[in-house]
Design a protein that fits this description.
The structure is a homotetramer. Chain A is mostly helical. Helix content of chain A is 74%, strand content 0%. Chain A is built from 9 helices and no strands. In chain A, helix 4 packs antiparallel against helix 6 and helix 4 packs parallel to helix 7. The longest helix of chain A is centred in the middle third of the chain and has 28 residues. The structure holds a DNA duplex.
DNA sequence: CTCTAAACGAGACGGTACGTCTGGTCTTATG
DNA sequence: CATAAGACCAGACGTACCGTCTCGTTTAGAG
């Protein structure tokens, strides 16, 4: 049997997402309320709550909708080069869109007092980006550029950890220089490890 | 001229800080309110607002008061060893005190929608910890273990970045294993850099 | 266009008015708070503020709701008799309901530091009672019992003025004796005036 | 034995009374607070509370201090003339001083939720004025202009009742016209009573 | 072409916490 | 002792949001 009743309004959905993003970028995430989104979107409050559990979820979806498939997955043959390009691309996304950084910070904050949203946030934003970086390093592993015993997750954590730490605390900048430094640091560590292991194996 | 008027009550100050910390650890930061702190501390609400701008500021001070001089600054002669001991000590603080991690996460969240509190938070919590790690690495620099051109701040960001990233997202654990991995990674990178630079100099 | 949105809850409205009146009579107007009314009425505080500007307005409406059509408008053919019955009836209302006098005093007090409420208070309580007394005296005027040049408003002011003055200052009692005295005084003055005027006219 | 300790400061007392009156007339009674009086008078809050139980008491004293012996007690040989002059004089006091009416209304309001202040208010303001009017009518009684059985208090209540009623509700004006009307009404009633009684006695 | 059912805009609802304000008391040092 | 200063406890105030609910209306497929 087909779906009964009035179908979900795509117009309302779009209006909500656009209004949420617009308000959040104009006035800051903290100042928007579900009420305001509803009024400005010309939508009933219930229509928001029917489809999203919180304003954070709305903003997250708006962000995701807005930022689809922007991340390059480079494959230049060298881990360091791949890392640098990937990280530059990642850092650029925020830099080119004013207000995006504030939204990311606000969503991370929201995730701290809403376990359910944390899951959502990880699934939609954190984990996909991790996956890209992870695969990028694994590729270097199959090339033997990185030793098979290396903890890929740690390297991923280093890259995103520094980014988020600087984003959240305001300590340091997030720019191409950082991308280069991180690429060098991680590639150095990974390749250095591989060499040491190789040396050990040779001697053995 | 001497201070005029009734002096600030040390008893009330202590009571407020202790009550705030106790409630926050027992029930979670999100569930405490300024009202409840006031009532349970036997204090007027105004007495809280007279000295702190928000409950976040109260909890921050309570945390700081409570955690004075807990961080070991090891000096074992080797960067990697120093790093490992320091990071283990840092990670232990939270692990040994249930509820502390939640408070740290809540405060970091609070800092995201309160610029004033962010400054306070950095000055009281983030920066002091950075300073210790920073000095620890600088010491290795004076020992020539780390090259003088190394970006010490980046290393600090890596250590705390990974810690906070895992704390906030729930990705990965924060334990002695991590301390060891980070110490190895950072020392490897720093020492590797020093050796390469030395090699360049020799060849030159 | 029809009414949009959820309609006002008559249940809440009644509950608020009843609770306000009950609390005010039990504990005195000064001791009730908007918070307590809300809690005891099982209602959100905002629901009170949405419909009334202050607790005084709530109590006023509660009083009015509760005291509808209690005032007798006698028509015995003689001004003095009508006055006496009307005033007795008016004075009785308060005397038979403990707490009402305190409420009236409190509302009159409230009206002194809230211009908006003073208007409301006059429109709902003062003026309707004036109108009855006014019409009663006018009827005597059409009967030629009172001269047409008499200032009816002054007579009304005398009756209610004495009542309120005694109520507010505690000087003297407000009972059937007073009703008789006022009736005699006013009727005497009004009829006396009519006779003098008639005499003048005759002589002319 | 002489009084020990530091004597009460007359400067502070004057400053408090003047400041209270000034603030009350400038901004309205409702807007002044004990705190504000203290600050503006350059006085400690406790100094106010040591000598007065409430801001109403301060304002009452300030008013009384300021308005000493302003009431004429006329003696023109005729009740109606005496009444008219007295009432005109009484009504003039308020009319010539802007803000006084508002203060009187505020004090009457205050007296409604403070039993202690009501006593104070009656003793200092209400009763003295009553006494003057009372004596004025009694004088007419000794002249046989008013019958000895007349209820003098009722006449007093009528005069002040109408005045206060109009003051508090804003119904009608308080001017020389009213003074004349009240004088005529009361004298008419009192003298009419005397004549009727005399007639009865003669016939008897 | 009616009927059923769900989504819709609107906005009132019960709740909770906020940060401010005032009242009246207490605690200093000073005169 | 009284004083100026000002911190203290207490608690009401009116506002802001939250997430739910209750209207009448709209929009689809089912009968």
């Amino acid at each position: 049997m087909a779906v009964r009743g009035r179908p979900r309004s795509e117009i309302s959905r779009r209006s909500i997402l656009e209004t949420a993003l617009r308000l959040a970028r104009k006035q800051g995430y903290a100042r928007i309320t579900v009420d305001r989104i509803a009024v400005e979107a010309g939508v009933g409050k219930q229509t928001i709550y029917r489809w999203w559990p919180s304003k954070a979820a709305v903003v997250l979806e708006a962000l995701r909708e807005n930022a689809r498939a922007e991340i390059k997955v480079p494959d230049l043959g060298s881990l360091q080069a791949d890392l640098e390009v990937f990280l530059q691309s990642t850092f650029d996304v925020s830099r080119n869109r004013p207000g995006i950084n504030d939204l990311l910070r606000a969503l991370m904050a929201e995730a701290q007092h809403d376990r359910g949203f944390l899951q959502n946030f990880r699934r939609e934003l954190i984990d996909p980006r991790r996956a890209v970086l992870h695969s990028l390093i694994e590729r270097a592993q199959t090339r033997k550029e990185v030793h098979k015993s290396a903890d890929v997750n740690l390297y991923v954590d280093v890259a995103f950890g520094v980014m988020w730490y600087r984003l959240l605390t305001g300590v340091g900048t997030i720019d191409n220089g950082l991308a280069g430094q991180l690429a060098e640091l991680l590639a150095g560590a990974a390749v250095g490890l591989a060499k040491r292991k190789a040396g050990i194996n040779q001697r053995a």
